[in-house]
């Protein structure tokens, strides 16, 4: 089975098995989407209205902005894989609750195990705090974090502000675009998959 088939199987399994309370109010699950052999996985917070309707992550305004930023660094949306820490839309786009995050956590970790990316990019504080609960996005954004987690091959993480937050905040937008431009350089600094030059 290739990675795409494994992900399809995984998503089918978790759609039935996931016990997230948000299932009751959401239209459908929104699993990750994109290139299963990508070196980069972007992790956002939770699906919004548009994502809930279409069953795909980052298809609304924030997704459009993300696409623009990717084009600045010559990467197409189809080349990367993108997912969320929570697979169901919280009512009225409120922040996901800790128990909702933990209900979807295994699903996310299973996705990451299959893809085994070189770099994980957090979009916003919720995604980052899911792995680094003690960090503040204001201090961590645009910096490469290196940390080994049990059961995960990826140990390189790069937090960014969430595109949705930057949509309506000019200064944050500038910071996000500048941080985004660092991604190709960060990728070059990371050893090839399986290599361990940095630890």
From TrEMBL:
<dbReference type="InterPro" id="IPR036895">
    <property type="entry name" value="Uracil-DNA_glycosylase-like_sf"/>
</dbReference>
<dbReference type="GO" id="GO:0004844">
    <property type="term" value="F:uracil DNA N-glycosylase activity"/>
</dbReference>
<dbReference type="GO" id="GO:0046872">
    <property type="term" value="F:metal ion binding"/>
</dbReference>
<dbReference type="InterPro" id="IPR051536">
    <property type="entry name" value="UDG_Type-4/5"/>
</dbReference>
<dbReference type="InterPro" id="IPR005273">
    <property type="entry name" value="Ura-DNA_glyco_family4"/>
</dbReference>
<keyword id="KW-0411">Iron-sulfur</keyword>
<dbReference type="Pfam" id="PF03167">
    <property type="entry name" value="UDG"/>
</dbReference>
<keyword id="KW-0227">DNA damage</keyword>
<comment type="similarity">
    <text>Belongs to the uracil-DNA glycosylase (UDG) superfamily. Type 4 (UDGa) family.</text>
</comment>
<dbReference type="InterPro" id="IPR005122">
    <property type="entry name" value="Uracil-DNA_glycosylase-like"/>
</dbReference>
<keyword id="KW-0408">Iron</keyword>
<keyword id="KW-0234">DNA repair</keyword>
<keyword id="KW-0378">Hydrolase</keyword>
<dbReference type="GO" id="GO:0051539">
    <property type="term" value="F:4 iron, 4 sulfur cluster binding"/>
</dbReference>
<keyword id="KW-0479">Metal-binding</keyword>
<keyword id="KW-0004">4Fe-4S</keyword>
<feature type="domain" description="Uracil-DNA glycosylase-like">
    <location>
        <begin position="31"/>
        <end position="181"/>
    </location>
</feature>
<dbReference type="GO" id="GO:0006281">
    <property type="term" value="P:DNA repair"/>
</dbReference>
<protein>
    <recommendedName>
        <fullName>Type-4 uracil-DNA glycosylase</fullName>
        <ecNumber>3.2.2.27</ecNumber>
    </recommendedName>
</protein>
């Amino acid at each position: 089975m290739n990675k795409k088939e494994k992900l399809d199987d995984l998503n089918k399994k978790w759609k039935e098995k996931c016990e997230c309370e948000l299932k009751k109010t959401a239209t459908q699950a929104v699993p990750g989407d994109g290139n299963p052999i990508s070196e980069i996985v972007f992790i956002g917070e939770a699906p919004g209205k548009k994502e809930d309707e279409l069953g795909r992550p980052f298809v609304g305004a924030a997704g459009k902005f993300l696409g623009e930023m990717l084009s600045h660094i010559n990467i197409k949306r189809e080349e990367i894989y993108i997912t969320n820490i929570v697979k169901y839309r919280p009512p009225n786009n409120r922040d996901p609750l800790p128990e909702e995050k933990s209900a979807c956590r295994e699903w996310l970790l299973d996705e990451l195990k299959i893809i085994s990316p070189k770099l994980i990019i957090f979009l916003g504080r919720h995604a980052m705090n899911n792995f680094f609960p003690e960090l503040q996005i204001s201090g961590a954004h645009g910096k490469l974090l290196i940390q080994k987690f049990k059961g995960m091959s990826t140990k390189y993480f790069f937090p960014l502000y969430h595109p949705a937050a930057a949509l309506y905040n000019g200064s944050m937008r500038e910071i996000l675009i500048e941080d985004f431009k660092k991604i190709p350089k960060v990728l070059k600094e990371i050893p090839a998959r399986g290599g361990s030059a940095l630890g």
